[in-house]
From TrEMBL:
Keywords carried by this UniProt record: Hydrolase
Documented EC number(s): 3.8.1.3
Name under which the protein is recorded: Haloacetate dehalogenase
Organism: Agromyces ramosus
Domain AB hydrolase-1 as annotated: residue spans: 26-153
Signal peptide limits: none
Gene3D superfamilies, sorted: alpha/beta hydrolase
Length: 290
């Protein structure tokens, strides 16, 4: 994987962030979701290099080979604002004053927060399989809670760690097929999930989501803050986001001024399952300001 890429560990002050990066054009930052690492982009990243971009793939705080501070009762060290501050510092240390940003799953919430908090940094943003956390919560019913039960299970104290660490490979294996992911990507994931500190950090991500992150979104709404840069949405046709909530573009128009959307013929992990389609959408969207 990532044959043209170099790796760097960036000390952000609060965390150490493992980063894969390559290229010399406009900087595209790709933020992974749960429980993946930056390796999830191993098929998309080289295609974006071919489009003439620099590509930066970090492991989010606490995921993969990145490390963050110890968890706290308020979950603030694992909030999306904290994770977004890591990405801002990575960009500063790599010399990127403006970035093109894409996030998938949990990474999409970090991308959303970075775009809202630092519009001076983010030029365009793509969010994949995502609506705001508070929009999910506002629409929660028995159908959503049944389908997305893991949000509420992961938010419980202590129990999820004990359940997952009893056999982490068995827990994650059903959605981690090496043939679909790629063998090296799969091996990297298996290494990460065997680490109790990594599992704890991933769960803190969800605990922060239902508490401090949701509060931050409510504060955004109360203050009238919106995503002012162009927003591109992608959602998987074989996942359930549209089935549960309808066309996500309609939801995001309450949050952003300039919204477009693309259905991707894929399951949830679209960067692994439909890399060419993802890279083509990102490449076209990110090239518009050149």
């Amino acid at each position: 994987m990532f044959e043209q890429f170099q790796t760097t560990v960036v000390d952000t002050g609060a965390a150490s962030i493992f980063v894969r990066h390559a290229g010399s054009g406009p900087a595209v930052y790709l933020l992974h979701g749960h429980p993946r690492t930056s390796a999830t982009w191993h098929r998309v990243a080289p295609l974006l290099l071919e489009h003439g971009f620099s590509v930066v793939c970090p492991d989010l705080r606490g995921y993969g080979r990145s490390r963050g501070p110890a968890p706290q009762d308020d979950h603030a060290p694992h909030s999306k604002r904290a994770a977004a501050s890591d990405i801002r510092e990575v960009a500063r240390q790599l010399g990127h004053d403006r970035i093109l940003l894409a996030g998938h799953d949990r990474g999409s919430y970090v991308a959303m927060r970075l775009t809202l908090d630092h519009p001076d940094l983010v030029q365009r943003v793509a969010l994949m399989d995502c609506i705001p956390i508070t929009e999910h919560l506002r629409r929660t019913d028995a159908r959503f809670a049944t389908a997305w039960w893991h949000w509420f299970f992961f938010a419980q104290p202590d129990v999820p760690e004990r359940v997952i660490m009893a056999d982490p490979e068995a827990w994650y294996r059903p959605k981690a097929d090496p043939a679909t992911m790629g063998a090296a990507n799969h091996a990297e994931l298996m290494t990460a999930i065997r680490d109790p500190a990594t599992v704890r950090a991933m769960l803190e991500d969800y605990r922060a989501g239902l508490t401090i992150d949701a509060d931050d979104e409510r504060a955004d709404r109360a203050a009238g803050r919106r995503i002012e840069v162009p927003l591109c949405l992608m959602w998987s046709t074989r996942d359930d986001l549209e089935e549960l909530h309808g066309d996500p573009r309609l939801i995001w128009k309450d949050w952003a001024d300039d919204v477009e959307g693309h259905r991707i013929e894929s399951g949830h992990h679209m960067a692994e399952e439909a890399p060419r389609e993802v890279a083509d959408v990102l490449g076209e969207f990110f090239s518009r300001d050149r």
